[in-house]
Structures are given as structure tokens and as C-alpha cells.
Amino acid sequence: MQPQEKTRHWGSETGSLARNLRYSISLYRKNNLAVVGAVILFSLFMMAVFADQLAPHPEDAYISHFERRLLPPSSEHPFGTDQAGRDVLSRVIIGTRISLPTAFLVVLVSMAFGMPLGLAAGMLGGRIESLIMRLADIWISIPALVFALAVSAILGPSLTNAVIAIAFMAWPVHARFIRNEVWHIRQEGYIEAAQSMGAGKLYVAVREVLPNAFTAYIVKITTDLGFAILLLSTLGFLGLGARPPTPEWGTIAGEARGYLPDVWWISIFPGIAIFLAVFAFNVVGDGLRNTLGVEEI
Amino acid sequence: MRWPLDERILEVRDLRIQFDTFDGIAKVLDGITFDVAKGEVVALVGETGCGKSLTAKAIMGILPPEAKIVTGEIIYKGIDLLKLKEKDRASLRGKEMGMIPQNPMVSLNPVLTVRTQLTDLINFKDSQDVSLLSYYLGRSRVAEQKNTASEATKILSDVALDNADRVLESYPFQISGGMAQRVCIAMALLGNPSLVIADEPGTSLDVTIQKVILDLLEKKIRERGLTVIYITHNLAVARRSAARIMVMYTGCIVEIWNSSKIFSEPFHPYTVGLKKAIPTLLGTKMIGIPGKVASFVNAPSGCRFHPRCERVMEICRKEKPPLLAIGEGHSVACHLWTQR
Amino acid sequence: MTQGILGHSSGIVKAVDHVSFAIERGKNLGVVGESGSGKTTLGKTLMRIYKPTGGEIWFNGEEVAQIEGEALKKLRRKMQMVFQDPASSLNPRRDIKGIIGGPLEVHDIGTRAERLRRVKELLVSVELSEEYAYRVPGALSGGEKQRVAVARALALNPDLVVLDEPTSSLDVSVQAKILSLLQRLQRELNLTYILITHELSVVCNFADRVCVMYLGELVESGGTTEIFRNPLHPYTKTLLSALPVIYDEELTMLPKVKPLPDSSTRELYASTGCRFHTRCPERIGEECPLTQPTMIEIEKGHFVACHKYS
Q1: Best exposed site among A17, B245, B278, C1 by fewest CB in 10 Å?
Q2: Chain A within 8 Å of B23 (Cβ-Cβ)?
């Protein structure tokens, strides 16, 4: 058995919080795409917060002006107007207020179901674990979109029902992920140490295992957010999610699809917004993986 | 002590290597200078992180890409290795210089059998830049296969692996640590090198197996007249395996002397500290060295050991003591000598 | 603590088989063996991390081999362990005060403020400054991490501390400091140690009694000086002769035995007979592969399990 002091890490040993933060940021910045993604996300977030100030025609979220319908992009309406005369740019900006919080909500709900189940499965093992995992297996084999369609058909299309549908579908992935992380973490020495001091399963799960599972989990959540936006906008496009006149990106694009390809601006611009959001989330998730995956300080 | 010119097989002169880290420049090797004579067995000894493995890698030419050689010379048989092109340097590896790696189990390719790894070495040791095509062509030539197969068995029995056939057929995870170590030794000696660097031999093995490995190495060294540099943190292993010991601390060589004398009469305070810390069977009390190992990023000024030294003087903080000869085969880098 | 017979078998492998020993309060026991000897398993079984499949463990006059639940939790306060690799035995995502305070949290001792105070006390007792409480393990050196592990083990004021290779991953100068720290704490807190290690030279300076294990079996046990001066079991002799030593005077103290062939495969878990017989340089005959030797007392306190002596 050989000494295992830091051999390859020739750096400093103070490890203060400020220094670690700076180090993490510098690691993150090495990935250019991730930085771009972070900028995009920040901009989208700012748009959601300051939508009223940024949108040139904020009232157009819901009010129609039929005299200016279907105008192509111009200096007054950079994204043109839609079939009800509403400024597309404003609707896209206001759309951040719909898409972003809803995506977070979806992921939060999946986490609320999936994480405790995965934790229980990983910590308790035996029959409980088998039960939960088999349940998850069955759930995953149902295609998300089909399920969402079914929910809309039964409960009626709305944003709330879309959230329910997607969140409901997503919990098994979270459960499985957490269970796998728990399995790995349980091999570690400090888990044994905790057990040897008399810690019960709950203490070990919450105080020892979970904080370590979180690094990988955060990366997954970030990518999940991108997925949620995609799914939400798909449902909206199909008319099964947010109903018009809600300015959800997918809904905006879907409403106007009959006008394609001549009147392209109503569908394309929200589509670009969706693309940017999903891309940004994925790429930030990637960047975070590199930053957080680093063990040394 | 300087050996006469033609007896020196390796000379390292003022080697300085640094790394760019987030916290600043880490000056890891700070002027390493030593000689090794032909046929000598020396040990480079130091605690973890002192830079001894890095020195070995510098000699072999397998430094990590982040390492920057600031200055220095590594002269092997009269040629400065640091001035060579990588191509020429690579041709020396294996044929002139061999390295026995630290952890044999991870140094063998886990998805290839021992036979494949050995025969590949045998077949291609003399070629430069083997292309993929010639590799597969070479592998399928049956006539050569027969020769190399018997050579492989011979090589393995040379390192006292009697059940050679069984070992050849195995994957690395199927053989024990001791056997893997012997395979690595065999691979290192395949090219008939003159200089062998053994990186922590036996550290990952049980003590009874370690003894077997060290005895085997001794035998091979005698048989082939090899020059060997042992890299180790285990002072007792260094004492028993090497004739001369070089003690390193935070990137500097602090003392060089014969292994039979250095621990009985150490001069440098660090060596003295090590001596006092070693557990013995004689009931001596184990006393540690106060303080922590110095960081490379903001290394102490002057002598790097001065913050922990019992006999520190003003000059130690200001000037780094040079490595000077103080007796027959005995050199020390300490102001206790320069200021005597 | 008195002795018992302890066996633990999981499936086919008998990790620890028929081990018996005793240690008195305030004294130290060294458990020596190489990889696969079962010494770590023994330590963890004593700590009830594993449950023994057979045998008895007597601790402070109570038999504790099979207890569970609340009784087990109470027992845990009296015996603690310092684990082998400090890097992995400390949770990298917790700070030092959380790590050392963990045992206190688990047993609901004190308020938050009281726990923090105790953590700082413990840090000082392991020779680290109080501000270490706010650091993370990643910022600590190996020696410092191990001190934190010791502090954690002492948080509940145990009587017995099992040390599993506490210094194997440390450099020699740090090792000396950790060992002297442990000895000082032993005097101050009247602790009893069980030191599990493969390094004989450390055991020689630290333990009062030694047990030598090979492949799950106890082959020899006795007072430290006795075992070093007069090793009886062939494995003990081999172990000693393989020890690299610095001083020639030490060399003369060691037996000289021919080095052993490798234990090449797991089939050496011989189901019958002495587990050492395939590698033993002093095999005497048909007895060795057939029956397992039992422990016999050769001199007062010096036990051996070998057919040579029965």
C-alpha cells in the first residue's frame, strides 16, 4: 500500500471557498460552447424577468389587432405579425415567462416523485428496490408523447395537464438515475464509517449519500430542463398543451402552421427560440459535467 | 563525487521542471544534479510528492505534456537527451533504457492476453512507428509466431515464472500481483537495456512477494550487469537494494551517500529526521518531522527545508545551498556544511 | 474483553475462520497479515459492520456478537474505527465539522452549538487548529485527514478503537507523528487499540500483543517481544524474514527463510487442512493437507496453530 498524498496535483492547499469558486469557473470557461450556452440562458432568464420592458408590444400577448395581421418582418415588427395582428417578437419574449417556469415545474415534479423513490430503492434494496425498479421499467416503456396525448384526450388539453403528463412520465428516469448513483456511493469508505458510528439508513441517505449524488444529478437536471421545453412545445404545437391565445412558443408556431411556407415568420421565430433554449440547456449541462466532475479542488 | 568520464552512464545536470497550475507556477524540480556510474545500483528516495517519479519520467522522456523543462541536461552515454528529437528519444526507450512501472496490474493492457502483449513487444521492438497494416500482417505470419512463442516462454521462465504457459494464456486480471510484476520486469528487460529504472517496485505487493521480486531483480542485475535506479519511498527497501542512496525533498536532492552509511550517520537535517521516524525492531522511538511538506507553488525561499529544520540559520532563508561533496562519495546540500 | 471463537462465512469463502484472542483494557493488540488474511474483515466484524456467522464477542463483560437495534447502537458508542484510506473514509461533500460531528448528530448529543464546541475540542486534541472545522477534506493532506478520522473516532468517547492500517497510505515522517498522537491519546483517555496492519515494524513499536493471520486463520498469537524473539509458526518466520530493515543489527534478529512461491490462485482456500500447507517451507507430512491444526499454548500466552507442535 503506498502513500496517496496528492502526487499529481502540484497546486496550493488552502482550498478556500473563494479560490475553489474561481477554479470551478475557470474550468467551466474552458468549454466555449458551455459559455455560449450560459450566456443564452442568462439572456432568456433576463427576458422572462424584464419581459414587459423588453417587448415592444407587450399587450400583444393576448390582444389582437386584425388590421395589421400577417405583416412580414420589418423595422417596426422585427419578427413580423401573426394571423391576429400580434407582434411576434413580443410574443416570443413573453413566451419565456411561460416556457421557462413551466419547464422548471415539470422537472421539479419529476424530482419530487423520482428522487425519493430512487433513494429508497437504492438504500433499502431487496424487495422494495425490485418493486420500484420494475415499476419504473414498465413506466419507461410507455412512450412519453403517446401518454401525453392520452392525458390530453381524457383530461382536455391545457398547460396544466401537459405538465402533469410530462412530469408523470419522467419520474422513472430520475428514480433509476438516483438509484444508480446511490449504488456507487454506497461503496465508498465514508458510508461504512457512518454505519459504524451507528447511523441509520435515513441519516446515511440524506446526510452522506445525497450530497454526493447531487453533482451528477445537477448535470442531469439541466439536460432534463431542455427536454422539458422540447416536450412542452411539441404538445403546444399539436394543440394539446398551452391553448391559444397563450403565447407559448410551440403554440405560436403550431397555430400558424397552416400559413407555411409563404408566411414563415410566425412559426420560424418561436422555433428558433425553442432551439436556442434546448441547445443552451444541453450545452450548459455538458459544461457543468466537466466542472463538477473534477474531484480535485 | 564525480566519476571518471567514461564510467558515467547517466548525468543529470541542474534539471528544472515546472508546471502551470491554477494557483501559480509550481516549480517542481529545482535543480536536480546527480551521476550514475555504469553498473551501479542507486536509489532515489523521498516522500510522496517530492518529485522522484517526475525525475524518472524526465529521464525516460515520458513527461506529461503540461510539464515544462526550464533548463537542465540529461546526458546518457554522452548524449544530451533533452536536445534529441522525439523520434530519436523514442528509439532509446526499451533498447537502452527500460522502466519497470509502479503498479503492474494497471500497467498491463487489461484486454489483451499476456502472450499478445509479450509477442507484440518481441515482434515490434526494433521497428519505429508500426503502421496498423504491418501490425496485423506481422501478427498473422505463422512462421514468426512459432519463434516468438518459444521466446515468450523463455523470457517468462527467465523471471522465474514456471507455469509460463498458464500465465501466457491469461489476462492480466487473472494473474496475481507478483506475477504481473514479473511480466512487467520481463517486458522491461526484453530490449536488453543498459539502464533500468524501477519505479516503486513491490509497493503494491505483499511483503513476502515483494521480497521475491526484489531478490529476482537483484539476480537479474547481477546477471546482466545492469545499471539501475530504484525510485522508492520505502527507506528500508532502498537500503537493502541499492549501494548508493540519494535523498530528495520537495524537488531538491539534499544528500547522497552509500546506503550502508547514510542512515547510521546522516548529515542533512531532513535525512536525520527520516532516520528518527523510521520504525525499527530495536525499540527506538519513532519521531516525526514537524511541519508539513512544502508546497511547490509558493516554495520556501532559500533552502526548501528551512521551515521545518531544527538547525535553521539566517542564511538558510535567503540562499539555496548547493549540493557539495563533503567526503568520499558523500554529498550534501546544506548550509551546515557551507558555513562550517 | 475476553475471547471467543469467531467465524464468518459468506457463501463459499470463509473470510475469518476460528479466530480467538483477548485483549485487556489499556493495552494494544496488533493484528498482522498480508492481503487476503482476513484482518480487515476481522476488524469490521468486531465493529459489527459485518455480522459474525458464528462465535462470541465479549466486550466489557457482555456478549455482543448478535445484538441488534438499540442495544447495537449503544454498543457503537463504545467502540469506534479509524479506516484504512483517509481519502475515502471522509465524505468529500461535507465539511470537517460535519464529519467529526457526525457521530454526535447520529446519537442526538448536544445542541448544534455544543457539538461545534466539542468538534473544536477534538480538533485541538488531534493537534489541528480550530479553523479546520470549516474546511473540506479535499483541502487537507493525508496526515491531516487521518487526524480528522481519529478525531471522529473519539467523538463519542469510546473505550476501544480499531485502527485499520491507519498509516499505510502515509509517508514515514507523517506516520511517526500519527502513531505518537495515538499513543498520547491512549494515555490521556485510557483507550484500548486494535491495530490492523501488514507492517511488522510498526506493530513491534506499538502493540503489546500480536496476532498473525493467514488466509482467514489465526496462526500465531502472543506477546510482541515474544513473537519477534521466538517466532514459532513457519508463516510468521517467513513474514519476518521478508521484512526489509535498515540497520544490520535488525537483520541479525530476523530468521532467514527461503522465499515462498506465489499464492497464484484462489484455490489456495484449501477446504481441508492447514491453509498454509501449499507454501509452507517446513511441511512435516500427511497431517498438513488433511487436518486443520488447532491453537495450542506453547508457552504462557504464546499460542500457535501448527502441526509441528502438536
Answers
A1: A17
A2: yes
Task: Name the 3-class secondary structure at B113.
Answer: coil
Q: How far is CA C165 from the centre of its chain?
A: 7
Taking phi over 0 as left and psi of -120 to 50 as alpha, with beta for the rest, C153 belongs to alpha
B28 contact partners, CB below 8 Å, separation of at least 6: A10, B17, B18, B19, B51, B54, B67, B251, B296
Between CA A181 and CA B317 the distance in angstroms is 50
- Chain C residues with at least one Cβ partner in B under 8 Å: 34-35, 141-143, 171-180, 198-202, 204-205, 228, 238-239, 241-247, 249-250, 253-254, 259-260, 262-265
My answer on whether omega of the bond before A261 falls inside 30° of 0, hence cis, is yes
SS (H, E, C) chain C: CCCCCEEEEECCEEEEEEECCCCCCCCEEEEECCCCCCHHHHHHHHCCCCCCCEECCEECCEECCCCCHHHHHHHHCCEEEECCCHHHHCCCCCCHHHHHHHHHHHCCCCCHHHHHHHHHHHHHHCCCCHHHHHCCHHHCCHHHHHHHHHHHHHCCCCCEEEEECCCCCCCHHHHHHHHHHHHHHHHHHCCEEEEEECCHHHHHHHCCEEEEEECCEEEEEEEHHHHHHCCCCHHHHHHHHHCCCCCHHHHHHCCCCCCCCCCCCHHHCCCCCCCCHHHCCCCCCCHHHHCCCCCEEEECCEEECCHHHC
Nearest CB to A5 within list B48, B53, B298: B48
The 10s digit of each residue's pLDDT in C33-71 is 998 888 988 888 888 888 888 888 888 888 888 888 888
Select the residue of B212, B278, B289 nearest C246 (Cβ to Cβ). Answer: B278
Note the pLDDT of residue B129.
65
Q: Over 70: is that where the pLDDT of C105 sits? A: yes
> By the CB < 8 Å criterion, does B24 face chain A?
yes
Global confidence as pTM:
0.87
B245 beta partners: B43, B257
- Asked if the model's pLDDT at residue B285 lies above 90, the reply is no
Cell match 532509446: residue? B92
Q: For an interface test with C, which of B173, B218, B247, B282 has the most C Cβ atoms less than 10 Å from its Cβ?
A: B282
Position B140 scores a pLDDT of: 66
Measured distance CA(B213)–CA(A70) in Å, rounded: 85
ipTM of the complex: 0.87
Residue numbers in C near B209 (CB within 8 A): 262
CB neighbour class for C252 (10 Å; exposed up to 12, middle 13-18, buried from 19) = exposed
Predicted confidence at residue B4, as pLDDT, reads 59
pLDDT computed for residue C8 by the predictor = 43
d(CA C154, CA C140): 19
Say how far residue A24 (Cα) sits from the centre of its chain.
Answer: 22
From chain B, pick out residues whose CB is under 8 angstroms from the CB of A12. 21, 23-24, 295, 297-298
Chain B contacts of C239, Cβ < 8 Å?
A: 207-208
Summarised one tens digit per residue, pLDDT across range A149-159 is 788 778 877 77
Q: Which of B48, B161, B280, B309 has the highest number of chain C CBs within 10 A, making it the mutation to test binding with C?
A: B280
- B 148-207: CB under 8 A from C: 163, 175-176, 178-179, 206-207
Cell matching residue C268: 489456495
Residue B86's pLDDT is: 86
Q: What is the pLDDT of residues B307-327, one digit of tens each?
A: 999 999 999 999 999 999 999
Chain C residue numbers with beta carbons less than 8 Å from the beta carbon of B179 are: 262, 264
What is the predicted pLDDT for the residue at A119? 92
**SS3 (DSSP) at B256:** strand
| Residue in B closest to C207 by C-alpha | B283
Q: Give yes or no for B22 touching A (CB within 8 A).
A: yes
Which pLDDT score is estimated for B128? 65
